[in-house]
Amino acid sequence: MSETKPGAAPARPSLEVFDLVKHFPIRKGVFGRRAGEVRAVDGVSFAVAPGETLGLVGESGCGKSTVGRAALKLVEPTSGRIVVAGADVTGLSPRAMWAHRRRIQTVFQDPYSSLNPRLSAGAIVGEPMENYGLSRGRETEERVAALFQRVGLRPEAMRKYPHEFSGGQRQRLGIARALAVRPEIIVADEPVSALDVSVQAQVLNLLIDLQEEYGLAFLFVSHDLAVMRHISHRIAVMYLGRIVELADKRTLFRQPLHPYTEALLSAAPIPDPARKRRRVVLQGDVPSPANPPPGCRFHTRCPYAVARCRSEDPPLREVAPGQHVACHLREVGAGPGPLAAAGA
Fold it and tell me: Is residue 250 part of a domain?
């Protein structure tokens, strides 16, 4: 992540999200009567600086992909604000949003279904350039060929169709398409989960190189802690629609402060068989986002929960420099001591 020079004004964030909420209605009956709502995202705030990668991690159903889609305005938020490169895009119509879409692009999870099978690879990458008037004709072909080389594809592959590429090559094609309009930030939703492990490393290293070269910001969504540790500068841990911990990756992996983060890290495999790690086994199932529990949403599975956790919802607050956590047992100034002692 790029650093601000002494005396210089801080860089404008590439993406800012303020108290983002996205609820999906539950409808029943012949007339589609509203019977409730799924609280997929319920008050999420963060900012991503130029040249930074913010990772969103959590188990399936926690709302991390919905955050990414809402930031892209692929789904309309129920409430909250979304600011892309200094422009508030929250209430913009699809037509008005079009002018801002070149600033925020995406790399999808499935490298095949995200590509138009009827277009050649060159047309897939070149089409956004011409749509935004960045180039025409021969100039577009030259720029597409240069992008192909930059992401590790041969320029001759421009004539091929998506089904003629391997999974890793298709994802490189998706990255080239995202880069075509020179965005400031890219939302990457599980971009390597469908790839072999060896190919995952190649794609992740490519994204890191591109970030350094172009000063890109990434909002990187994944459930894989090893991937997050490799690519992220900061990591936000989500549980049941909310961020429960946010810190730089070294601090998070070395000294997690939230019980859920502690359990996630304890479940991750260690490559050294000689090393041992105390496993934190969570009891019970994840509550339904249609009926979240009162108080702290994690208290039904937390081994350290106290009476206050069952009635009072903890806010996300900074309890150590750069480390934010939503936990009553981590009051400001309480320090990073063991949770078992804090809950005693």
Answer: no
Token pair belonging to 318: 């900074």
DSSP secondary-structure letter at 61? T
Query: Residue 175 belongs to what domain range?
Result: 111-182
Instruction: Tell me which residue of 153, 174, 61 sits closest to 108, measured CA to CA.
Output: 174
Give just the sign of the alpha carbon dihedral 174, 180, 181, 184. Answer: positive
Distance CA 244, CA 316 (A): 7
- For the chain, the domain total comes to 3
Phi, psi dihedral angles at 211 (to 5 degrees) = -65, -45
Does some domain include residue 238?
A: no
Residue 302 CA, distance from chain mean position: 25
* Strand (E) or helix (H) holding 212: helix 197-214
Residue 1: inside a domain: no
What's the DSSP call for residue 10?
A: P
In a structure prediction context, what are the per-residue pLDDT tens digits for the chain, which is 344 residues long? 444 444 444 578 999 999 999 999 998 888 888 888 999 999 999 999 999 999 999 988 899 999 999 999 999 999 999 999 999 999 999 899 998 999 999 999 888 888 999 999 999 999 999 999 999 999 999 999 999 999 999 999 999 999 999 989 999 999 999 999 999 999 999 998 878 888 889 999 999 999 999 999 999 999 888 899 999 999 999 999 999 999 999 999 999 999 999 998 887 766 666 666 666 777 878 899 999 999 999 999 998 889 999 999 999 999 988 899 999 988 755 555 556 445 54
Phi-psi region of 7 (alpha: psi -120 to 50; beta: other; left: phi over 0): left
Task: Examine the domain organization and report whether 196 and 52 are in the same domain.
Answer: yes
- Do 187 and 98 share a structural domain? yes
